[in-house]
């Protein structure tokens, strides 16, 4: 049976700041992030199976990525907990705004590592996470590949 990759695309709006960065991205600013999630597996080959012919139902992949990433990061501000932004986060949150304090500098690279971990843990055993692509702007993106890790 053939091994196939399937990909689903998501978008979400998130603000972040790169504390200590030597450029304008040290300020809080936002992106319309685009995330491509690719998984790999063998399509189910069972005429009696409701998911016959699928590596994983796109709908099931959507549920996992939405609950683990999109619904959490969408319209939130991501700040580095290992920086003075921790205090800023508390202030923003006190005004009922959604803040995610992460234990890393919230670059595209580090967000991908976080997303890969969260998504991998929720995938069924029959499939594997192959790669992620996170576009921060229309001309900048980072990629995570399982085979590189
Ligand atoms: N390797 C990385 N470099 C930068 C990241 C990152 O996550 N990884 N992030 C930023 C900023 O968050 C910034 O928002 C994006 O930077 P950049 O692509 O430079 O954005 P510009 O709109 O200024 O780029 P143009 O090419 O001028 O459109 C910075 N670097
Ligand atoms: Zn940015």
From TrEMBL:
Domain of life: Bacteria
Pathway: Purine metabolism; 7-cyano-7-deazaguanine biosynthesis
A Pfam family assignment: PTPS
GO biological process, one term: tRNA queuosine(34) biosynthetic process
Record note on cofactor: Binds 1 zinc ion per subunit.
UniProt-annotated catalytic positions: 25, 75, 136
Single annotated GO MF: metal ion binding
EC number: 4.-.-.-
Catalytic activity: 7,8-dihydroneopterin 3'-triphosphate + H2O = 6-carboxy-5,6,7,8-tetrahydropterin + triphosphate + acetaldehyde + 2 H(+)
Top-rank EC class of the record's enzyme: lyase
Presence of keyword Secreted: no
Keyword Transferase: no
Cofactor(s) required, per the database record: Zn(2+)
InterPro entries registered for this protein in UniProt: 6-PTP_synth/QueD, 6-PTP_synth/QueD_sf
Keyword tags: Lyase, Metal-binding, Queuosine biosynthesis, Zinc
Sites where the protein binds Zn(2+): 16, 29, 31
Family to which this protein belongs: Belongs to the PTPS family. QueD subfamily.
Protein name: 6-carboxy-5,6,7,8-tetrahydropterin synthase
